[in-house]
Design a protein that fits this description.
- The structure is a single chain.
- The chain has 303 residues and is an alpha/beta fold.
- The protein has one domain: 3-Layer(aba) Sandwich (Rossmann fold).
- It is built from eleven helices and nine strands.
- Strands 1, 2, 3, 4, 5, 6, 7, 8 and 9 form a nine-stranded mixed sheet that branches.
- α3 crosses α11 and α9 runs antiparallel to α10.
- The longest helix is centred in the C-terminal third of the chain and has 20 residues.
- It is globular and about 75 Å long.
Length: 303
């Protein structure tokens, strides 16, 4: 292919690399585990364990869990419960919280733009306890963990870099761990409604809608950052490339002709920096249901 296929999902980077390099076995520097939690829920763990793997997938060394369930976006009780429980167990593994650890939950994104509103929607459902512990400790369980939350907004409305806001809040509230939630971009449009990625490598704010800012991770914030992301958009070039590759495969076009197809499509599309993104018409429902699932999973993990 003559242009890069955009995705924020480690599982898709792995798939793209395997296809491009014709690798059937495991990629050097990568360890992958597959778990069928049930007929409805599948979990893939992609662990990048060396610089070689980091270079292959274009992502930092660390663990990336991908949860996939065909009807996750519908909010059906049985599937939602399975996903919530799995989110909780993964967060417990990655956070390694002690009894007294304080947690800051950060909802990235713009609430006024539906595909980018996941973070703020999740925060609205988080059980906040830090103020209760401070001001009315007699009314809560003594082993309740301190949880605070913030929606820092976006640079276009605040004029302040998201990373600077989170650093300032962290210095004041002194959390031991941070959970960040944001929208992502996917390679496959089918993953928009049915996928959640959880990683221990932090996140780049605005990645999903193409407005990349400074990465939020332990190196930049000084505190371990676990990221939860949901793909809510697909790059329009991704859709076009899928159609063209399907046409090539269907018509068994030989390798010599493939590059001509790719060059033609590249000329017909706008430059990558002016590219459009695509989101489902029912994105409101997708965001509402998945934000509730994520919030429930976080609440279960923290208290």
């Amino acid at each position: 292919m003559s242009w890069n296929i955009r995705t924020d999902l480690a599982i898709e980077n792995r798939e793209i690399y395997q296809k491009a390099e014709k690798v059937e076995d495991e990629i050097p520097g990568i360890k992958t585990d597959f778990e069928n939690v049930s007929e409805d829920l599948k979990v893939t763990k992609v662990e990048i364990i060396s610089e070689e793997g980091e270079k292959a997938l274009g992502k930092p060394i660390g663990k990336y869990y991908t949860l996939e369930a065909d009807n996750m976006h519908l909010g059906m009780e049985e599937i939602s419960s399975q996903v919530e429980n799995k989110i909780s167990s993964i967060l417990k593994e990655l956070l390694q919280l002690s009894a007294k650890d304080k947690v800051l939950v950060v909802g990235l994104g713009n609430e006024e733009v539906t595909p980018d509103s996941l973070g703020p929607k999740v925060i609205s459902r988080i059980n906040i306890t830090s103020h209760l512990i401070k001001y009315v400790p007699q009314y809560i369980n003594e082993d309740t963990r301190s949880v605070s939350a913030i929606v820092p907004g976006v640079l276009g409305t605040t004029g302040i870099e998201t990373s600077d806001i989170i650093k300032a809040v962290s210095e004041k509230t002194t959390p031991d761990k941070i959970i960040v939630i944001d929208a992502l971009a996917a390679r496959n449009i089918k993953r928009i409604k049915n996928t959640i990625q959880i990683s221990d490598t932090g996140i780049i704010p605005g990645a999903g809608v193409g407005n990349n800012r400074q990465r939020l991770n332990k190196e930049t914030i000084g505190i371990p950052v676990v990221a939860i992301g949901v793909p809510t958009v697909v790059d329009s070039k991704t859709i076009v490339s899928d159609v063209i590759e399907g046409l090539i495969e269907e018509n068994k076009i030989d390798d010599d002709k493939k590059e001509d197809y790719y060059k033609y499509i590249q000329k017909m599309l706008p430059e990558i920096e002016n590219n459009s993104i695509v989101t489902p018409t029912e994105i409101d429902e997708v965001i509402a249901n998945i934000s509730e699932i994520i919030a429930n999973g976080i609440n279960m993990a923290l208290n």
